[in-house]
Amino acid sequence: MHSDTRAPLGLKLSAIGGLIFLLAPIALIFVYAFTTEEKSFQWPPPGLTTKWIGVTLGRADVWEALGLSLKVAAISTTLALIMGTLTAAAVARSRFFGRETISLLVILPIALPGIITGISLRSAFSLLDIPFSTWTIVLGHATFCIVIVYNNAVARFRRTSGALIDAAMDLGADGVQTFTLVILPNIATALLAGGMLAFALSFDEVIVTTFTAGNQTTLPIWMLEELVRPRQRPVTNVVAMAVVIVTVLPILAAYYLTRDGEHTAGSDK
C-alpha cells in the first residue's frame, strides 16, 4: 500500500501565497522599469517603453557606481577565497586548543547586524587614521564574504576523506601536489559556489558600505540616493532590475553546484 505524498490543498495555497508575497514586489520593479511615467509610481502604468534602458546606459554616474561595485566585489571575493579556504583547512583538518572558538569567531561577523559591523569598522578606521577608499569598502565586505567561503569550504573539507590525502602522501606527493591533485578537485565546486555567493552579497551590500565608503558611491548606494532625490524614477528601476539579475544568477549557480556535494570522493569512507 502506497502512501499519498501529495500535499494538501491548503498547504499548496499557502505556498503559492507566500511566493506571491515574496515575488510580487520584485515583479513591480520590472514593470516600472518600462513605464512611460517618470515622476511617480502610477498603477497601472499609463504605457510601456524601452527608452529608459537607453537612458540608463547613457548615464555616466550609473557606470561609475557599477564599476566600483564590480571592483569591490571582485577583490572582496578573491580575499575571501584565499583566507576562507585557508581557515577552513586549518579548522577541518587540524586538532588544536581553541579550534571551536576560532570557528565561532570566524562566523560571528555574518551573525552580527550589519550596522554593528559598519560602526565598528568606521571607528577602527578613524582610530587608525585610515582614509576612506576602495580598500576600506573591500575590508568591510571581506568580513562577511570570508564567512560565506569558509562555511562552504569547511563543510566540504569535513566530507573529504583524510585517507585520500594520506594515500597521496604515501605515493610520494608533496604538499603542493596533494593540494592541486587531490584536495582542490574535491573542494572546487564548494569554493566556486562560495565565491559566487560572496560576490552576490558584496555586489548589493548597503549597510556596511554606508559606513566604510566615505564619499564613494557603489551601485546600491547610488540607488538609495536616487530614491531619496529622484531624477528619473524608471532609471532607478532599470538599475534595480539589473541588480536582481546579477545577484540571482550566481545564487542559482551556487545552488546547482553544491546540491550534489554528497558525492565528494571518499565521503562515505
Automatic annotation (TrEMBL):
Pfam families given for it? BPD_transp_1 (PF00528)
Keywords of this protein's UniProt record, alphabetized?
Cell membrane, Membrane, Transmembrane, Transmembrane helix, Transport
Q: Which residues cross the membrane?
A: 12-34, 72-92, 104-124, 130-150, 179-200, 206-224, 236-257
Looking up SUPFAM superfamilies in the UniProt record yields:
MetI-like
Keyword match Metal-binding: no
Highest taxon above the source species: Bacteria
Tell me which PROSITE patterns the record gives: ABC_TM1 (PS50928)
Compartmental location: Cell membrane
One GO biological-process annotation of the entry reads:
transmembrane transport
- First-listed, main subcellular location of the protein, grouped into a coarse class: membrane
Domain (ABC transmembrane type-1) ranges: 66-256
Gene3D superfamilies in UniProt: MetI-like (1.10.3720.10)
Question: How would you describe this protein's topology in the membrane?
Answer: Multi-pass membrane protein
InterPro entries xrefs: Bact_Polyamine_Transport (IPR051789), MetI-like (IPR000515), MetI-like_sf (IPR035906)
Q: Which family does it belong to?
A: Belongs to the binding-protein-dependent transport system permease family. CysTW subfamily.
* Protein name, UniProt field: ABC transporter permease
- List the lineage, top down: Bacteria, Pseudomonadati, Pseudomonadota, Alphaproteobacteria, Rhodobacterales
